[in-house]
Amino acid sequence: MFAQIRAVRLAFIITLGATSALLALAATTVLLALGATTALLALGATTAMAAGLNQESPDPLAPLYEASRAGVEISGALRRPTQGLSDAQNGYGWTGSTTSGANPPRFGGSISARASAFDNADCMVLAHQPYGRWERRDTGWAAANDFAESRLETIGGDAACSWSFALGETTGLRVIGGVRAGVLEIYHQLGLPAHLVFHMNSDEIAFGWRAGLAYDDEATGLRISALYTAPMRFSLDGDHYVNGTRQTGSLTGDVTMPRSVALRAERDLAPGWRGAIDAEWAEWGAFDAMRVRGDALQGQGGAASFATGFKDTLSFGASVEHDLSPAWQVGVSARWDQGAGGAITDLVTLRAMVARRIGAQSLIELSSSIGWQLPGETSGIDAVTSRSWSYRSQSGPTYGAGARLVLGF
User: Fold this and answer.
1) Tens digits of residue pLDDT in 12-51
2) Element housing 394 (H / E)
3) N or C: which end of the chain has fewer CB within 10 A?
4) What pTM was estimated for this model as a whole?
5) Contact partners, residue 235, CB within 8 Å, separation at least 6
6) Which domain holds residue 128?
């Protein structure tokens, strides 16, 4: 199972990465030819990665609203944080550097396909990486014996449909429902070099669901939507290594990704102008720790718990898009994502995008933004070592780049 999950994830990331690179190259060539690259010189991210471990877009089921009878959408974004850590402290007396550099860059992407099933029904499927996080400390980090590296990766598949009902001549109501499925992998390392490693994967596919409503007014372009995402519980098993040696007996555990509620409103502001606002609440406080059990942990009483320090989060965003011509569109947005806790602190992001329409129902888009990660402080007691620890998260900018291709039929 471990090898299969890693192979599928690698193929998924390579496909998205190659597609996004080709999109970026093609779009940049067109933009350079027209002298329109100025807005793209800053790098930015298109996926939300501050509120907990969420990597989804603010409107993951947006393809359901497309006007074409069928369509395919491919998107990818690369995010490069620069925020480091400082002031590592421990009552037992750490030795080494009290600072550590930024986490590695992250790539997130998605592929979706949509079709109109009937005159009043639209359905879509989505393959993506809904949750993820990679934290890695520098060699010499004083707190390495309590935490050196942690990775959480997911592969998800969603299916959703919307059913439209007329309320008036130009108004209507959509009822949205969908199911989710996914697998998860966790790697947690103590020590540099590693002296204690936990490596766990899903032992079965986890399932969840979504439900929502949307009100549309074609006369004004108004759409108001609400979407509830149910929690997903991942059942895990894996191995425990001490100084590179696999310990006898397997580990089991579970991790639950939180429920959330997202609200969004958008409408036409003037001819060629459209604006949107959105807000989301996520119950990240329910993911307070990763708990593992098994014979390999007899020295720790058969169980261990790694606290996350997470809390519930809020996110708010606003955007404006403008049609420069029938072929070209530009847009800007601002977003604040509340940090869930730990090293995940508040993030403020400004984003710019430019899109080139291909016919009446397709487009290619490049986006760019710069974010600012706010400072924070984390402390706790490690359940395995029984030692207290603390460190500060420094403030700093976050960069990235994104591309999106929409094909309508």
Assistant:
1) 443 444 443 333 333 333 322 322 222 222 222 334 444 5
2) none
3) C
4) 0.84
5) 202, 203, 204, 206, 252, 254
6) 2-408
